[in-house]
Here is the input.
Amino acid sequence: MELLLWSIALIVALFVLVKSADYFTEGAEKVGLYFWLSSFIVGATIVSIWSSMPELITSTLWVVQGKPSFPIDNVIGSNIANILLIGGISGVFAREMLVKKELIHIDLPFFFLSTSLFIYFIYDGVFTWKEGLASIMILIIFILYTIADRPRKKEDREKVPMNYRYLVYIIGGIVGIYFWAEYTLQSVENIAKILTIPESIVIIFAVAVGTSLPELVISVQAVRKKNYSIAFGNIFGSNTFNALAVTGVPSFFGTLTISNTVLTVGIPFLAIATIGFIFSTMDNKVARWEAIALLSVYIVFTGKVVGIL
Here is the structure.
């Protein structure tokens, strides 16, 4: 009974956490458009960055509260879920997802670079503030390069009227993310204690998937509208931000440590997922059978994490 209650508490906490991020993103997007930022710049910076707010805030709080291994657990679980689960489900909904050359030439290299650098930094068992600073600098370069490489067209700009409701969304979203991140942490601790399993397993599986829900919803909706660039860009951008910022920012509050589950299961599967996803997009499309293969690998990953396989 106690396990059921804490499981419900975790689900509710993750739901409100994700909704808070949604409100913040909507408010930030409208305010950006009000100041005549192009729709592309808003999407490439505000929306893509703040869709990962749940991971960033929860990871920072965990380090402050003496849980230095949680941020890496969260990023590993979230990035693997983005590639295998979200990429797989999106591909199943579409018979064939086409990849634009711009994504292959810009987003894909940074996606590979950020993941490779992330794996290299955590392979020795710790992630220091110096490595965090290097990660943040690379993220800034990625954002600036993405914006600079985009052709400036007048039709890309969109002026929207200012509505103070959007400011309420921003403030309310920040408050909601902060407080419900606390409840998420408490739920994880209690579930792991009841099941007598490492907290890292709950983080890698349950929390990572829960905080990836915005990416899942966005990608599936984009695929249904045959807007495959948003689906791919969402996966590339989210993983790049997670690998660089969701680890980089918390490292300023304390050295991050790497759990045994990440070293033995997480790193190998992240490498396999990244390389497999890159190869599947090299021909500028992802077929349905490739998407099914991605989902199959995620099932194997889940089995390894929970100890079934």
Remarks:
- Confidence is low (pLDDT under 50) at residues 152-157.
- The radius of gyration is 19 Å.
- The longest strand covers residues 96-98.
